[in-house]
Amino acid sequence: MEKTYEIQGMTCGSCVQKVTGALEGLVSSVQVTLHPPRAVLGGETIADLATLNVAVGKAGAYKLKTITAATNGDQPDGEKSWLQTYYPLFLIVASISLVSLKGAEGLHDWMLHFMAGFFIVFGFFKLLDLKGFRDAYATYDLLAMRWNNYGLLYPFIELGLGFAFLFQFQLTAALWFSIVLMGFSSLGVIKTLREKRKIRCACLGTALNLPMSTITLVEDLGMVVMSAMMLYVMA
Hints:
By secondary structure, the chain is α+β, with helices and mostly antiparallel strands. The chain has nine helices and six strands, in the order E-H-E-E-H-E-H-H-H-H-H-H-E-E-H. 59% of the residues lie in helices and 11% in strands. Helix 1 (13-24) crosses helix 2, helix 4 (107-127) crosses helix 9 and helix 5 (130-137) crosses helix 7 (150-166). The protein is elongated.
């Protein structure tokens, strides 16, 4: 006998471990995934939903929900297409790109405006749930894995870079720092992608449930390339 449930409230790999541990004593087999947020339970007998929710509720703010067929092509509830998943991210980046055109007299100005907007907006989203971002970031960033509180500092570093680009303060130093920061961040993303781990991307904090993918890597390396281009133009 096997049953599948949607899980609400999971944000990172640590949540997967907590939910798994809470359910292991109730069923013969447990398989919990973050993307999609699901629990597949197996055994001769499986406790009712209320009992299961009491167990996961003791582990944190988690809740199991019965999966029902969606009206759109019988797609399971909670699953989204690739475009639906990343639409909020594309919308944010497109908005920053358009706003960056204001007052830009060329590619140099546009890139400077875009980088300012990118770091400020993405840093702000991380501040909406600072502790949640810290835990999610620690699942893949090489430094945050070893020093958990680095995740608490990272949003403020991004905001600092954003305002440095906005006001053109110590621009050369800010560009070099951006290359180091985003280049190092991309190493953790590359490692995660190579291991084919299905975890949550923390690029926009926990406000949006975005899976880790090559898009995350493009974001990081895109900022590295822009910073390098800016330094070349300024040389």
